[in-house]
Amino acid sequence: MLILEKITKKIGARVLFENVSVSFNSRQRYGLTGPNGAGKSTLMKIMMGIDDPTSGNVTLPKKVGFLKQDLSEFEECLIRDVVIMGNNRLWKTRVEQDKLYESEIDDKAGMRLAELEEIVAEEDGYTAESDAEVLLEGMGIIPEFYEAPMKALPVDMQFRVLLCQALFGNPEALLLDEPTNHLDLEAIRWLETFLKGFDGTLIVISHDRHFLNSVCTSIADIDYETIVIYPGNYDDMVVAKSDVRLRVDQENKNKEKKAAQLKEFVAKFGAGTRASQVQSRLKELEKLQPQELKKSNIMRPYICFQNPERNSGQIPYKLKKVSKSYDDNHVIKNFSYEVNRGDKIGIIGNNGMGKTTLLKLIAGVEKPTEGEILLGHQTLFGYFPQLHEEVMDKGPNPTILDFLRTQKEGVHEQEIRSALGKLLFPGDDAFKGVAKLSGGETARVILAGLILNTHNTLILDEPNNHLDLESVSALSTGLANFPGTVIFASHDRDLIDKVATRIISIEKDGIHKFDGPLEEYLKSREQTV
After folding, report:
1. Residues near 286 by beta carbon (within 8 Å), at least 6 away in sequence
2. Which of 20, 130, 296, 323 has minimal CB crowding within 10 Å?
3. Whole-model pTM?
């Protein structure tokens, strides 16, 4: 069990949460939710002892696994060792054993080694290597790298190793901040299965709605300067939270109506002979105070892409025997495909298989090694890259307003401010420097640039990265309702489920094309395996 006792956290004059007491129970899996800036990561850092609360106490079980974010600490360490470091007691014991074996073994050292062997046995140290390898395999890391240093892996795979570290050693509690970042669909599904079998207390932050719905048994929602526990998954919480708010609002309206009737009676008969009835009504009035509701910190963006100024031709894109290689690395091989006007195409596949490369080819950012990509009649496209700096130049010191002026010729400031308001940038936020924006803010600014235009085709590479759940939901609605063509890559199953009507899956055995939504594609693949 993990216990928060009267926790308050203030940042300057702003209160994130106040006097919060919550118990997170064993064998329960909690999703920690709230919009960007609500304090989710701050609360998790408080639970991990990385940050201090303004006041209050945290009680943790003895063994806690948490997802670290600093790769530099481990770049020279062997990958399998990094995983085993997740059990701090076992790792310290092994380090001490190695030092003792390097020196002369006297009676004292022998006694200590015997004590250390007992600790190794208690911590299942004799199976540590094989246990670590099971986790690494599940995360898609091949055996050839197990004894390589961390820096030998790409950055996204290094984060997977740190996730394995958090899961290692049978912790009593797991604290995971955005564990699905850097994971492909296959790894996310493996992690879902692993966590559903976890026997301790899980607290997880994620912007992946499907993941939260699949894994969580409860939701701990940060809102109204407190934390409210809702039973069920994320969708259950949204319904329950809306119902509570609507019920209280309705009760307040009924109280106000009743109070008005009582006041009318008092005003009419207050000076008359019905004094006892008037006093009764006054006492009843005192009991009819509306329930005070703190203002919710949830702010929902509105993402609505403009109708195209003119439609594209029936076939916006045609790919004819397209191949793309980088030296000896053949990423795309002999791929042909026709995109029809109005298609919503979701591109899926493991990291490194070529999703970004394919989108860059379609967007004209890169040229194919072989074959050709034909742009259809009147195809006007907007592009959202996975690496935001590809479209957002952050120097010399441009503001959000400066950047968006470059996104549409002759755009009026009123149009820009309207788009920014929909993406939760009010008033003077337009003058924020783009160099100081967070990942989520940068993503919303790029989306604002797409909203300003009247493209008939949208090409998006992992647009949900860095966005909170409310923003991803708004993006899903915006893309699903867009009357033009959408081609996008994502690992977010909820986004793909809601938007994609066709699937391109880049896999080890080639590129698979499927006319239908994601769930139908996955079922068809299971039947053929």
Report:
1. none
2. 130
3. 0.78
Contact (Cβ atoms closer than 8 angstroms) between residue 173 and residue 2:
yes
Q: Are 369 and 324 in contact (CB under 8 A)?
A: yes
Number of neighbouring beta carbons within 10 Å of residue 179: 25
- Number of Cβ atoms within 10 Å of the Cβ of 86: 25
DSSP tag of 398: -
Q: Are 492 and 414 in contact (CB under 8 A)?
A: no
- Concatenated DSSP letters of 415-463: HHHHHHHHTT--GGGGGSBGGG--HHHHHHHHHHHHHHS--SEEEEEST
What are 256-299's pLDDT values in tens digits?
A: 666 676 677 667 766 655 666 766 766 666 665 555 545 555 56
Distances (CA, A) of 395 to 347, 371, 496: 32, 37, 34
Residue type present at position 450: L
Q: What is the pLDDT of residues 228-265, one digit of tens each?
A: 899 999 999 888 877 665 565 556 566 666 667 667 76
| Residue 263: alpha-carbon gap to chain centroid | 51
Predicted confidence (pLDDT) per residue in 350-371, tens digit? 888 899 999 999 999 999 999 9
DSSP, residue by residue, 52-108: --SEEEEE--S-EEE----SGGGTTSBHHHHHHTTSHHHHHHHHHHHHHHHS---HH
DSSP 25: P
How are beta strands 457-461 and 502-507 bridged, if at all? unpaired
Q: Which of 131, 132, 138 has its CA nearest to residue 194?
A: 138
